[in-house]
Amino acid sequence: MNIEPGRLTKKERHELILSEVRRSASIRISKLARRIGVAGETIRRDLIELGEAGLLNRTYGGATISLVTSEPVIAERGLTMVEERARVGRGAAGLIEKGSIVMIDGGSTTYEVARSLSQLSRDLTIITNSVGVASVAGANPSFRVILCPGTYDSREAAVLGEDTVEFVRRYNADVAIIGASALNAEGPSDMISGAAAVKRAMMARSLSTMLVVTNDKFGRSGLERVCALSEISDVVTDSEPAAELRAAINEAGGELHVFAES
Description:
Blueprint: H1 10-24, E1 26-28, H2 29-36, H3 40-52, E2 57-58, E3 64-66, H4 74-77, H5 82-93, E4 101-104, H6 108-117, E5 125-128, H7 131-137, E6 144-147, E7 151-153, E8 158-160, H8 162-168, E9 173-178, E10 182-184, E11 187-190, H9 193-204, E12 206-212, E13 224-225, E14 234-237, H10 243-252, E15 255-258
Parallel strand pairs: 4-5, 4-9, 5-6, 9-12, 12-14, 14-15
Antiparallel strand pairs: 1-3, 2-3, 7-8, 10-11, 11-13
């Protein structure tokens, strides 16, 4: 973030704090204060707000902080890579044809796709397990939105489980739009097994699959592989991947769409 220290807005401070914690798992308030260029008391207030929002776990005395889980919750992910996810969302939305039936799984990047789609006149049918996706897509009167049943997972603001998978299997779609926790030459992977199962179910009922990921997912591995790269029709991202990953995508037959910063 190219912003002069000490001149950050509260939202920008929060994003930087979360970024620093992800890199080191825990960090001292004094270090954060020096890094951001504000008083320690300002950082303490920020940590209280982030803790109350469920994004961080403060230790006793407020000297250090740590993430609650290894997979950031969707509320936290929404504070990071904001411009990158917006570009991916706009780019992916532009690839969806009018009148399509679209399955969209839960996630911060897939939400951006739905948000961009909702601003277009496309007469789409949206099938999703994400409360956020359903809400933003439902704002478009030309869309028909079908929200899956299932067990609500607050980490993802989405429903998961056997009921969700069985419900998805009732429908056919033109395209499944899925996100991922990580992407490497072996394919996309996710940190939540229930989410991976829903992605696979959506893919199985769709004619094509579009993977939407930001560049911070490149070269990483998640807990559970979702599928092979050969099962992905299109990869939509914000930055050119490394040569090895790009070669793997091309070899698998997928089309890479890069919507880089202009």
